[in-house]
Amino acid sequence: MNVIDAQTLKDDEDAIRAALTSLKTATGIPVTMYATVTSEKKLQISAWVGLRTPALQNLIIEAGSGVGGRVLATKRPVGVSDYTRANVISHEYDRAIQDEGLHSIVAVPVIVHRDVVGVLYVGVHSSLRLGDKVIEEVTMTARALEQELAINAAFRRPDGRSTLGAKSGRVMNGAEWEQVRSTHSKLRMLANRVGDEAIRKEIEELCDQMVTPVRMKQTTKLSARELDVLACVALGHTNVEAAEEMGIGAETVKSYLRSVMRKLGAHTRYEAVNAARRIGALP
């Protein structure tokens, strides 16, 4: 594997892991999974959150078979409320599903440049029927993940370096850019703990300077508190963790997050972070 393949793979893995964690937090669904399309045009479950057993970990799925294989073949979402009895899918993988104890499953294709590159799953260990809101959340997360994967591919140069920062004459690699993002989020959290208003504003100005050289000027006005919430979400914090970090209530965090999502036209926390990065509100 060459440098570009290794870096792109890591960037993609980070994006997928963030999507799974965000999706689980947003929906409360206990299991989220991602299956990658292999070079043999099969699926392999490559990332997961909440699985109780190894039965589905790294499972290879044939196109057209089971829920994921049907999604791969049709490029359309598929949901079943009782997997082993569902008549819309084939049942080659019933044993693995039973060993894990999953009942209801929803799977949505992740499509980049018109090709299915993966399948995003959610599932529950009970007969609970997954409603339209859950399906919509999975779909929106898949769409946001598609954008992230496409950006990762577009920002890779033949020598394995990112094109971000090229205008300044200094080209950052993926690890350096991720460090910038992490530092930005931590600085915003630090500003919350500073009692001196002048120093706090100076830190916030430094955060803005980290964003503006490499992103287009922000057109959607977000408040400082809304940016703080987004910075917490970008670090993977839950609402409760963000509330503790910011010294406010969890319901207040939810209120800020709803306002941010409305302003950015986002449907999920993960999509809101991506949208904020696109407009230059976050690095």
TrEMBL record:
HTH luxR-type domain segment(s): 215-280
Keywords per UniProt: DNA-binding, Transcription, Transcription regulation
A Pfam cross-reference name: GAF
Gene Ontology MF terms in the entry: DNA binding
Protein's GO biological process: regulation of DNA-templated transcription
SMART domains to which the protein is assigned, alphabetical: GAF, HTH_LUXR
PROSITE patterns reported in the protein's UniProt record: HTH_LUXR_2
PANTHER family linked: DNA-BINDING TRANSCRIPTIONAL ACTIVATOR DEVR_DOSR
Name this polypeptide is given: GAF modulated transcriptional regulator, LuxR family
Organism: Corynebacterium epidermidicanis
